[in-house]
Amino acid sequence: MQNGTPDKPEGLRLRARMRYLYHGGSPAAVRFRLAVIVVDFIIIAFFLAAPILREAGWAFYVLDYLVAAFLAADMAARALAWTNIRDWLKRPSTWIDLFILATLLFPAWLYNFGFLRMLRLWTLLSSDFFWRTVGRKYDDTRVEEITRALAALVTFVFVATGFVYTTFRGYHTEVHGYLDALYFTVSSLTTTGYGDITLPGAWGRVLSIVIMLSGITLFVRLAQTLVRPHKVRFPCPVCGLQKHDPDAVHCKACGETLCIPDEGN
After folding, report:
1. What sections of the protein cross the membrane (predicted)?
2. How many other β-carbons are positioned within 10 Å of the β-carbon of residue 153?
3. Does residue 159 share a domain with residue 45?
């Protein structure tokens, strides 16, 4: 007890500390989240290079378990920082991270699913955690929309590449290495179709069609975000509409008068 106030239990102090770091707006909390994001990008680079690094033998498994330790600690901290852990467990990104953690803890058994680790890039760049930290200075939502669309496209490229590499390498195909799988994915996704690398059988053709159609969809989405008129995030005080034109005077939904600050304010 200090100054007549009973001390908080250790568990409550820890949860308050995690909420401060993961959701606070102070410079110290922002620096902490920036450090976590930097480590996240390093881990994503490790995931990308994993098919090549696995040939290093035991050194790869050491790195694998170090990444698993960081991811487990980060997930535990996020769970403590969340108001209701049950709500946190209902988030799709939580289940993706749990699956990624399982592939790290059991790399010998779940290595064939390791290509799904690249989903971490999509969950990171689509998370409120990232945009509260890195993107907090952007009132222009166009930056966020372009980043999300680009993240979806890049994630799909590497997830598809990993699937092709894991499934078809060594099965009487031209896919002899990771670069061959990446080359096939990009040429199929852009519908270039040089034909020097093809996948055998009906499943190979089905996969090629899926990559082509998904690639067109993701490219169209990215193009739309690039040419679409940008908006700013300014919630309407009456109807709650989040996005408006930068020079909007009235809300398009309810007609409420708006006072959107410009760069000079």
Report:
1. 32-52, 58-81, 93-111, 146-168, 202-223
2. 18
3. no
